[in-house]
Amino acid sequence: MSTADPKETLVHYLQNARDAMVWKLDGLSEYDIRRPLTPTGTNLLGLVQHLASVEFGYLGETFGRPGEHLRWHTEEADHNDDLWVIPEETREDIVGLYRRAWAHGAETIAALDLDSPGEVPWWREERRQVTLHTILIHLLAETARHAGHADIVRESIDGAAGVRADSSNLPDDGYDWAALRARVEAAARAAAAPG
């Protein structure tokens, strides 16, 4: 990327992380995108839904531009209901929600300067006052963090790894990953062995 505009740079990297999240769903069954693969229930489609919710909050409510009403924003909802998808909602529904959150966020970003003030009502009182710059960095960090979760979850499902379908960012030269894993396992066992 060759731009000197800080806002464009932040949006560029945020969009790369967003695209990675959506790509992690490609080619998988409904079961595989929804099944929990960690003790805390982490699943690919739930991560996408969570990030849609996060974007509507940070690039919406924070700047006085509420987005869509989401079913998990009720008194009765469990605080983790945004991290998994009910059977009645489709992959297309959730990806569509995420893309609508992007569009809503793009309008906020276009309308504001990086130093424009906002308030995050769910943050502690002493941290609530923010700028668009702070929120874009926060969103980039959160999206990249969840993209890392998605990398690991997707690799555990079918071995697919990397940042994009057209660029894994991994050596594509027949590298012996099984041998590397065996060396790492041997080193871990040796380090754990009684002295």
Topology:
Blueprint: H1 6-23, H2 30-34, H3 44-58, H4 91-111, E1 117-119, E2 129-131, H5 132-158, H6 177-192
Antiparallel strand pairs: 1-2
User: How many strands appear in the DSSP assignment?
Assistant: 2
Strand order of the largest sheet: 1-2
Number of helices: 6
Q: What is the CA–CA distance across the termini?
A: 51 Å
For the record, what CATH class applies?
Mainly Alpha
What is the second-level CATH architecture?
Up-down Bundle
Overall number of domains: 1
Query: Low-confidence spans: pLDDT under 50, at least 5 residues?
Result: none
What is the CATH homology-level superfamily?
Answer: dinb family like domain
Q: What is the helix content?
A: 40-55%
Q: How much of the polypeptide forms β-strand, as a percent range? A: under 5%
Shape from CA axes? globular
Q: How confident is the prediction overall: mean pLDDT?
A: 91
Determine the structural class based on helices, strands and strand pairing.
mainly alpha
